[in-house]
Amino acid sequence: MTASRIVELAEFGGPEVLKIVQRDLPPPATGEVQIRHKAIGFNFIDIYQRKGIYPLPLPTGLGFEAAGVVEAVGQGVLEHAVGERVAYMNAGVGAYSERRNVAADKLVRLPESVSDETAATLLFKGMTAQYLLRRTHRVEPGDVLLVHSAAGGVGQILTRWATALGATVFGTTGSPEKRETALAAGCKEVIDLNDPQWPEAFLAASGIKARVVYDAIGKDTLLRSLDCAAPFGLVVNYGASSGKAPAVDPELLNKKGCLFLTRPSVFPHNANPATFRANAADLLDAIARGHVKADIGGRFELNDIAEVHRAAEQRRLKGTILIIP
Ligand SMILES: NC(=O)c1ccc[n+]([C@@H]2O[C@H](COP(=O)([O-])OP(=O)(O)OC[C@H]3O[C@@H](n4cnc5c(N)ncnc54)[C@H](OP(=O)(O)O)[C@@H]3O)[C@@H](O)[C@H]2O)c1
Fold first, then answer.
1. Which residue lies with its CA nearest to atom 39 of ligand 1?
2. What is the 8-class DSSP label of residue 291?
3. What residues does ligand 1 touch, defined as CB less than 6 Å away?
4. In the sheet that 210-215 helps form, which strands lie side by side, from edge to edge?
5. pTM of the prediction?
6. CDD domains recorded for this chain (predicted)?
7. 52-106 tens-digit pLDDT
8. Hey, what CATH class is 141-263 in?
């Protein structure tokens, strides 16, 4: 047995329910490897799970994404060895920890050019951008896109990668201080969401409705996002930062221009190990080409996890937050 400091919650609630505890970690089972984490990624979904909006059986660990070093391999694991650098993003919750056992087929081997911190910054959010730009809609040169929360973790990656693919990206942010970040990621223009007329402001800036609207804000924005999509365009509701999106009457999609509306998730897109590896290779290629870059918005110790959650909910974060165990 090895000891590991982990974040555990025994009840759903505010950031104060996140407790640091010491737990024994058994050796890796058949098909698993044991990883010592070097960097852990924070994702907005961690908040939904802490609050019980996406309920988990309690008590539970939290966190989907981390990078580190293989310390032990279980029986039957041939493709990974002790000392190797790896990362993961869809191995179930428990990444907020010093050490962890993970199924070997959920791991990405890291090339030397990608640091642990970069991997923990980019893997979950980059794999999200990967399916949104390559599968939900295959972005083509000349596409006009509207990306909400363009200064955020996924938002910056979406913007930078879509721009590299030849799209023109308009972004929104929740405060003027985030405008420069969104512009630096590649937005042609940035719309302030505090303006109640933000859809009109988007249309004035773009002169044309969007082929695709990427909306992870949900409750506060989705209905107005429908006004920003071109006829036969696509509205992608992939998150609920402000709360769950309202139900949409299919007839509304007809009235707004025969629109398509989808609510996808990164996990089914990567459930098959071969597809997961292919998608990860696509992301690593985009990183190598400079189409996807890490924007580390801050580093926190595992002990300060409650403060990370507080700052995210108060919209104080830009880029991606790393947790160092
Ligand atoms: N479906 C999927 O596959 C998938 C995968 C990964 C992430 N996601 C979703 O993508 C979104 C972005 O994730 P992320 O980890 O990169 O987070 P993030 O964008 O860094 O943070 C969320 C952003 O949402 C915006 N926001 C708008 N209304 C808000 C409110 N009432 N409270 C808090 N934030 C609000 C804020 O940006 P502004 O202040 O600029 O508006 C905030 O920075 C999240 O909704 C997440 O759940 C979905």
1. 174
2. S
3. 43-45, 125, 128, 149, 151-155, 173-175, 178, 193, 216-217, 220, 238-242, 264-266, 313, 315, 317
4. 189-192, 168-173, 144-147, 210-215, 229-237, 260-262
5. 0.96
6. QOR2 (cd05286)
7. 999 999 999 999 999 999 999 999 999 999 999 999 999 999 999 999 999 999 9
8. alpha beta
